[in-house]
């Protein structure tokens, strides 16, 4: 498989990013992926600047290979996280941004010579990001785990590829070599996988949550937050069902007030990741969960996905 100049410029062996997942993607997971030749990305999520700085130090102590940081733009700590990223610019290969438009932070990252790769869910946002200087975009379909947009990867990706002149990375619903080969055919230069790395051996996700992903079937996920908060793909569990029931009931009222429901969601990913709590925890995961059957070291995942895609692309089946 021929790696694109952009992927080569990042110093990667495989065109595979590990999604910067809040609470999940710590310095250890990111370093494991980077050491094996993919791009590990620390997920800042809602963490404080201090926590993010610690995870960057952990990753730096475990790998000499490039890694990135995902800045979650909805975080209450986003400003301090941006400062931490700027202060560690020599250790960080790139920044991905989730949940919105990086706006003002763009200028700061660019001034510090940090590559910025926003996650986009529409052609309009992809074009806007190109205009303001994004180095690439990650086109993420609504199959993916976590916060989602409205379009599928299959439909969104080729339209983004046609609309911009910067490299496009595909995310959402990709967990094996068939997925990687398919999105390369659609014009992507690489993939970002979240759900498959959620169950990597090096991932700190609670065993109960990991088991739920490994046991999931094609229709095991649902979307919460269509009314209250932000749409999010999670595995069906007690928490998710209760959340959607409450938001639908509220939506039917003349003057809906979602504040109590949103409160219920606060800390729900943390409770899932750290405690495996299905009653109050959000098991964020993508539709592709049903394809993932075992916990494996990150290095094995990368090798398996790459080798399968490589064979398919060279005509072997
Ligand atoms: C548990 C979980 C947490 C996530 N947190 C974030 C986040 O904080 N920021 C972000 O940009 N994307 C986040 N994502 C999305 C992933 O980075 C990735 O783009 C997505 O999982 C790809 O789709 P897949 O799950 O089908 O592989 C999260 C995904 C999961 C499953």
Describe the structure in your own words.
This is Probable nitronate monooxygenase. GO terms for molecular function: monooxygenase activity. The protein is α/β, with parallel strands linked by helices and 317 residues long. It has 2 domains: 5-204 and 292-313, Aldolase class I (TIM Barrel, Alpha-Beta Barrel), CATH 3.20.20; 217-284, no CATH class. It has 14 helices and 11 strands. It has helices at 5-9, 27-35, 49-62, 78-87, 103-111, 123-131, 153-163, 177-185, 195-198, 207-215, 238-251, 259-265, 268-275, 298-313; strands at 16-18, 40-43, 67-72, 94-98, 115-120, 137-140, 146-147, 168-171, 190-193, 221-224, 232-235. It has an 8-stranded parallel β-sheet with strand order 1-9-8-6-5-4-3-2. Helix 2 (27-35) packs parallel to helix 3 (49-62), helix 3 runs parallel beside helix 4 and helix 8 packs across helix 14 (298-313). It is globular and about 55 Å long. The protein binds flavin mononucleotide (FMN). Flavin mononucleotide is lined by residues 19-22, 24, 43, 45, 70, 72, 98, 119, 140, 143-146, 171-174, 192-195, 198, 284-286, 288. Flavin mononucleotide binds at residues 19-22, 24, 43, 45, 70, 72, 98, 119, 140, 143-146, 171-174, 192-195, 198, 284-286, 288.
Which key terms come to mind for this protein?
alpha/beta, TIM Barrel, 42% helix, binds flavin mononucleotide, Probable nitronate monooxygenase, Aldolase_TIM, NMO, monooxygenase activity, oxidoreductase
Task: Write a brief structural summary.
This protein has 317 residues and is an alpha/beta fold.
């Amino acid at each position: 498989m021929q790696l694109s100049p952009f992927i080569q410029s990042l110093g990667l062996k495989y065109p595979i990013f590990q999604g910067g997942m809040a609470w999940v993607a710590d310095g250890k997971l990111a370093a494991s992926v980077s050491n094996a030749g993919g791009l590990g990305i620390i997920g800042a999520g809602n963490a404080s600047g201090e926590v993010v700085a610690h995870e960057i130090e952990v990753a730096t102590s475990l790998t000499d290979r490039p890694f990135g940081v995902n800045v979650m733009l909805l975080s209450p700590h986003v400003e301090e996280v941006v400062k931490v990223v700027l202060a560690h610019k020599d250790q960080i290969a790139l920044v991905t941004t989730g949940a919105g438009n990086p706006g003002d932070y763009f200028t700061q990252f660019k001034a510090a010579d940090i590559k910025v790769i926003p996650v986009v869910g529409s052609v309009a946002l992809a074009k806007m990001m190109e205009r303001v200087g994004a180095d690439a975009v990650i086109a993420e379909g609504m199959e993916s785990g976590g916060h989602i947009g409205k379009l599928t990867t299959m439909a969104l990706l080729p339209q983004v590829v046609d609309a911009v002149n910067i490299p496009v990375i595909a995310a959402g619903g990709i967990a094996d070599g068939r997925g990687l080969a398919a999105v390369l055919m659609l014009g992507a230069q690489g993939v970002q996988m979240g759900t498959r790395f959620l169950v990597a051996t090096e991932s700190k996700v609670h065993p109960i949550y990991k088991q739920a992903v490994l046991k999931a079937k094609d229709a095991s996920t649902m979307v919460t937050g269509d009314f209250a908060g932000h749409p999010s793909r999670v595995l069906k569990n007690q928490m998710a069902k209760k959340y959607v029931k409450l938001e639908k009931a509220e939506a039917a009222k003349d003057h809906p007030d979602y504040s109590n429901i949103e409160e219920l969601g606060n800390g729900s990913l943390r409770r899932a990741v750290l405690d495996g709590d299905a009653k109050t925890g959000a098991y964020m995961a993508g539709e592709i969960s049903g394809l993932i059957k075992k916990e494996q070291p990150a290095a094995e995942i990368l090798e398996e996905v790459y080798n399968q895609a490589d064979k398919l692309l060279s005509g072997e089946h």
